[in-house]
Amino acid sequence: MLNITDPCELKAADIYRQAQTVASKTSRGTDGHWYKVPEELPWQWHLWFDGGREVCSATFSKQHHLWRPGPVLPLANLTTGEGVSEVLGELMSSQYFKDPPKALGVILHVADEFSLAEISQTGETSGETAEDFQILRYNLVDDPREVLADREVSTEANSWRLLPFNGASAGQARCAAVTLSRARESFLQHLLACAEGLRMPVRVAVTSAAVESLAAIPLLKPDLAGGCLIAFSFYKFTAVFALGANGELQTARSLAHRGGSSVPTGFGDILWNMALGAELDTPKVLLVSAQPQVLQSTSQELELYSLSRQPIQFETLSLSEHPALTDIPGHRPEFLTYDGTAIEQLRTGQSPLTQTETFRSLWSTWARQSFMDTGKLDNLYPTQRDLRLLRFSSWLIYLMVFSLITTSGYGTYALFSAMNHPSWNLTPEDMQKTQAKHNLLLEEKRQIDITSRLLQPRSSGWVTLEFILQLFPEDSGVRLENFQYSAEAARQIATSRKSKGKGPKADAVGITRTWTLKGLVKPKALELLNTLNSQRGLSSFFDRIADTTGDESYRTSPTRQLTVSLTQSRNPRFNAEAAPGDLSRDATLAFPFNFEAIITQTMSEKDPLAMPLDKPF
Known about the structure:
With 617 residues, the protein is of the alpha+beta class. The chain has 3 domains: 271 residues, no CATH class; 29 residues; 152 residues, no CATH class. Helix content is 37%, strand content 21%. The protein is built from 19 helices and 19 strands. The strands form 5 sheets. It has a 5-stranded mixed beta sheet. The protein has a 5-stranded mixed beta sheet with strand order 11-10-9-12-13, with helices on both faces. Helix 9 links the parallel strand 12 and strand 13. Helix 1 crosses helix 13 and helix 15 crosses helix 18.
């Protein structure tokens, strides 16, 4: 295992070096399994022990919902931590899982002890709301002495986790602290050290078997509605939970077995008093055990108590014969809360207990609380985000070094090539010849550029005809009597600028094109002309001609200016009552209006189609 020091005790440079060591010798920066809780991992190893001679070992493939008996682990090894590497090597094979595990979640179900500690009611929170429960939960992990009623406790020997009593009535305790010893943590520490050497993510947890058994009751006894006591018999103790009439947990007790007996001393009196405290009209008890002889002796005890003292109704539930535990190694109900299929059956089932706040919270939080504070161990290591940032910074350093070497190499090569270039050996006569050849090529390029500009198409006759057709479509109600088109260079502008000496010398001259149209028009056709009487309509008309003909000289541009002069008047020859014969002799009688439009397009000297002033030759 790496020698990790608390980052709070290190300087910034030492923290960086320690993070580099973790990134290089572990897979924490690339494997997200390091940052999950054990029940979230696809491969799980469950260990259950009650203080007897054997340890129940089981493996669970979460993806395949498959339980298998796990590797044999003697109770002595669970205490001393010996043989951990051999067991871990067995688990990494495909003997216990369908596929070799890439990570392992180890959950230690403690069934040899179960005791309850009182929560202090003098603090800021007393468990009245769900938020209070969460605050108490975290306080029990961080500073249990501030939460427990007994301040003289040893945090090195024990750990505590919260158990809420959602059904507690007024005046009763709303919660209690479940206490477990930390004697088994050494085994898990050895397991973590061995797994870290193998670069395999292993996450561990220590849970209370008694609380997990309570969470599995709705699946073991679906018809149970509450208003009873549930007694789970283990090897060294019996855990008793009191459910109110609404199915909510009201209180719990741990009864130790004395003198090797499987039945607690004064068992009947304790159950009777708990029933009275839970306000049960008739004491009803559900006895749960995996040993038939334990159920038999407990039943005899309660039968004698009912005959001699107070009547108690009871029934037994044998775990060894329960159908829901057939596929579970050791018939342990504690394992059921980690099976997603079983939990889904509980949530969607018709059992009355599934609707209670007690069991919903047990499945989501309280039953799977880990009594081993792995958070403090995780805080010693950099987070996954820190390790990814460290890896990115390492790549950036490598890239910078590579860039520096490449730049230096290229600069050296360029300097060497320049120093050995043939131009260093040129004589003045050779340089003059090269300069003359270069000037000749530049002159030829200038001539080619000017010739290409001169030969650009600037005005086409067929496009001018298309201009008229686009302006006045067929049957548009227009009679065109006169049309003129002209294109000329704007020499006066170029000459004036050159003569006055203002601005740079112009190397081109703009072009002005003019379309003059005269004719007669009917009222409906006036809309065609009116669309040209705005800058937007005129620009849209010219763009349409450019799209139709492919002539880019009609395309609107900041270097081109469009103007229009439109004059409309009434036709004095119009005769609304003219006969068809008169119209055939004189068509002008049918048009009530005449018009004259002058459209001008001015291309500046900066336009690509401007005429160059320089001669190519």
